[in-house]
Amino acid sequence: MAKIQNKNDAITSRDVDFAQWYTDVCRKAELMDYSSVKGFIDYLPYGYAIWEQIQVQLDKRFKKNGVENVYLPMIIPTSLFNKEKEHIQGFAPETLVATLGGGETLSDPLIIRPTSEVLFCDLYKNLLSSYRDLPKMYNQWCSVVRWEKTTRPFLRGSEFLWQEGHCLFETEEEARGNALTMLEVYDEVGRDVLAIPFVKGRKTEHEKFAGAVATYTIEALMHDGKALQAGTTHYFGQGFAEAFGIRFLGRNNKLEVPHQTSWGVSTRLIGAVIMVHGDDNGLVLPPAVAPIQVVIVPIRQEAEGIMPTCNQIKEKLVEAGYRVKVDDSDRTPGWKFAQWEMKGVPLRIEIGPRDLQEGKLMITKRVNGEKISLSIDEVVDKVPEILEQIHQDMYAKAKDQLDHSVVDVENLEQLNAALEKGGYARMAFCGEEECELKIKEATKGGTARAIYSEEVPEGTLCPVCGKKATVIVYFAKAY
Amino acid sequence: MAKIQNKNDAITSRDVDFAQWYTDVCRKAELMDYSSVKGFIDYLPYGYAIWEQIQVQLDKRFKKNGVENVYLPMIIPTSLFNKEKEHIQGFAPETLVATLGGGETLSDPLIIRPTSEVLFCDLYKNLLSSYRDLPKMYNQWCSVVRWEKTTRPFLRGSEFLWQEGHCLFETEEEARGNALTMLEVYDEVGRDVLAIPFVKGRKTEHEKFAGAVATYTIEALMHDGKALQAGTTHYFGQGFAEAFGIRFLGRNNKLEVPHQTSWGVSTRLIGAVIMVHGDDNGLVLPPAVAPIQVVIVPIRQEAEGIMPTCNQIKEKLVEAGYRVKVDDSDRTPGWKFAQWEMKGVPLRIEIGPRDLQEGKLMITKRVNGEKISLSIDEVVDKVPEILEQIHQDMYAKAKDQLDHSVVDVENLEQLNAALEKGGYARMAFCGEEECELKIKEATKGGTARAIYSEEVPEGTLCPVCGKKATVIVYFAKAY
What we know:
five-stranded mixed sheet; 23 strands; globular; 26% strand; 35% helix; BirA Bifunctional Protein, domain 2; alpha+beta
C-alpha cells in the first residue's frame, strides 16, 4: 500500500476505534455529509453512485422474477395507518407526522412513510378482483423516514433509501415461497455483487417484523465482530389483507383472502460493504459496485506519450463496459495512490516513462496490494479476469472470517464469552420471547440474529428455562 | 384501428370532452390510480415504466454533461427555508409541514421538500473551498410535495416525481451557459425521445421562478390547444449563495460568491406524452419510452407452429435490445388489439396459420394504423427502422400541429380571439408585470409562456399601456 501522505492521514485505525474508523471512511471517501437536520444525511456523488450500482443489480433480478416497479405516496393518513394493530405498535413511536398542509391544520394527520405495507394494501384492495389477477408483485424504490434517536451514516438514519417489495398470492405456499425466493436474491447479490457472505434464516418470534407471520433475514459479519442485518423478507399470512378488506374471486367462485409478503434492502448495504471489506487505508469496494473500477495514474504525466497511452487504455476499457478514470490532476502520484486507495478503487494502473519504453505497466490490487506487471498490449484483455479474481478473493476472505467466527455454545456463560469475543454463537433454546429477553440481558445486548435449525438433538434443553429446546439460533451483538 | 369491443369502450372521445378523455386514458391504460389521500396518486407499473425510460434517457445525458447524482433529505427545517425571501413567498402557501417527530413537538418544524434549493445551498456551503472545486453540478431524482388545491394525474399533484439539478459556477457566463445547455438537453429529449416539439425561451418577469434572475422554459402544445410547461431551467445569480454564505477562494486569492443554476423536469412529461400523441383509441407511445415496444398477437394460438414462431421472434428482438411481449392470454385477438392500442404499444405483429404457411406476418403501426406485410425472416431486421420511422412520423405530426397553431397578433382583441381558438399567439408588449396581469385578465387566463424575441421592430407599442414594447412573447392558455 502507498504511504498515506495527504488529508487522508487523519484516518483512525480499525483496531484502535472501529466506530471512529467507520465515520472517518464515510467522510474521507466522500460518501456522505451530515445535513443540518440531526439524523438526516446528504448522499454525496461517490456514495450515491454505489447505491445506483446496487440498484441496477437488484432491479434486474427483481424484474427477472416478474416483479414490477411502482411508486406510491410518501404519506400515509393516520386513520389508514391505524388499521393493522401490531404494525402500528411497531412503528408509531418513530414516526414523523405532518399536521399542516397549505397553511391549514389537517383533520387526518399524515405520517411520512416509515414503510408502505398499508399503502400497498389500500391499492391492492382496488386492483384485485379475480385469482387471474394474482400474483401481484410490486416493488418501489424510495426513501422512508423513521425518527431515530441514535443514528449512524448508512446504518441507522432518520431517512434512508431502500426498495420495498409487496406481493399478493393466491396460496400460502406461493407466498412463503416468494419470501424465500427473495431471500435467495438478496443472498445472491451479497455473494456475486457485494462479495459479502451472509448468515441467513428465519427470525425468532421476538425479532420478527411487526405484523409478520414469519420474517427471514440475511446477516453479515462486520470487521469488529458485530452482526449487521442486511435485508429481510416477510410472510404476512392474511393479516393485513383481512384488515384492509382485500378479496378476490377464487377458482371455486368464492371470495378469498390473498396471502402477502414484503421484502426490502436499503442503503445499509453500503454500510455493510464499508465494514466488511474496508481496511486502515480506507474503503475497499467490490468491482461490481465500485463507481470507478479502474483508476489510471500517469507517472510523470508531462513525459511524451504517457497521457495518450493512459487515455487509449481508458477508452478501450470504457468501450468494454468498465468504469474508468484517468487521474490527470496536478497532485503527486503518491497523493493520488493514497486518494484512490481511500476511495477503494479495486484496480490501479500506473504507467511511467520507463514502463512506456518497455511497453509495460504496473497493476495494483486494492484488496491485498498485490502488484502485477503487464504488457500494455494485453491489459485490456486481462482486466476482466483480474477484476473477477479480486471479487473472488474478497468474497473468500469475508467468507473465511464469517465461518471462523461461528462457535457452538450450550449455556449462557459460554454464550456470553463467545459474544464478548465477537462473531456468531449458535445455541439451542426454547424459542420463547421471555427467554430470549433474558438471554439479551445476560449477554448485555446479544440478540437472536437468525434461526440456524429447527431440528434440535433430542434431549436438548433451553439453558434459560430448562424446558425443551426447539430451535438452534445464531446469536450475536448487532448494529 | 381495431373496433373497441372490451372494457376499453368506455373511453370518451377527445373532441367531446378532452379532460374526461385524459382521465379515461390514465385509468384505462393503467398508468395510475388515485390514492386515498386527495391529490396523491399511485404510479402503477405501466405508468412508472414510462418514467423509468424517461429517467434513463435524461440521466445518461446529464452524466455526459458532467452532472453527478446525489440524494438530499426530504425535509427542510423551517428556519433554513426562511433564508431566501422571494423563494419562501413562492412556496410557503403550498407546503406540507411536519410538526411531530417520535411523538414530540418539533421546535423547528420540517417542511416536506417542495424543491431543494436551500438544501443544496446548505450542502455546498460546506463542500466549497476554492475555485478548483468548481463547477459543482449535482442532480437528484426524488419526489417533492406541493399542497395543491386542484390536481390532475401527472399534470399537477400534491406529490410528483422529478429530477432537480443544482449547480454552482465560478462565473455568471458559465452559469447562464449551463441554464441554456440544460434547456437544450430537455429540448433534445423532447425531439429525440418523446417525439414532442417545444416552444422554448426565457420566461417573463412575472412568470419566472421564485428567487431566479432568469427562468427558461420548454412548452408543449396539447391536443386541446393548451400549452403545457414541460421543464424549466433557472439562472439564480448570486442571491441564494449570498443568503446562505457560500464562498470560495477565487483565482485572485479573494473570497468570491459563486453563480448558481437549477433545472428540472417531472412526471408531467408523461402527461405531455399522453396529451400530445394520444387519440380516441387511447395512448400512443413514442418507441423510445414505451414499456412494450412490440406486442406479438398470435391468431389461433393453438394452431401448430404459431406460438413457437411468436416466441422465436420475441427472443430475437429482445436479444437486439427491444422490449417485446407475446400476448398468449385467453382473450380474443380483437380484445387484445384494442387492449394494446389503449396502452399505446407502437408496433403490433400478428401471425396466424395462413401467414405462417406463407412465411409472412402483419405489422400494424399504432400511430396511424398503417399495415405492412413482411416475411417472417426479415421482421427482426426491419423492426428497428420501422420503430425509427414511427418516431419520425410522431414528431413530424406534433411539429406540424405546433407550427400551425402559432399566429402573430397585435392587440388584445386579436389575442383573445386567437387564444379562444387554442394554440400559441405571438404578441409584443412592454414586459411589465402590470400589463401582463391585465393581459391575463382580458384573455380570461391567457399567460406569457415564453419570450419569442427580445428584438422588437422599431415603433412597436405595448397594446396595454401604450409604452415602448420590449419583448415579443408566446401567449397561450396553459395547464
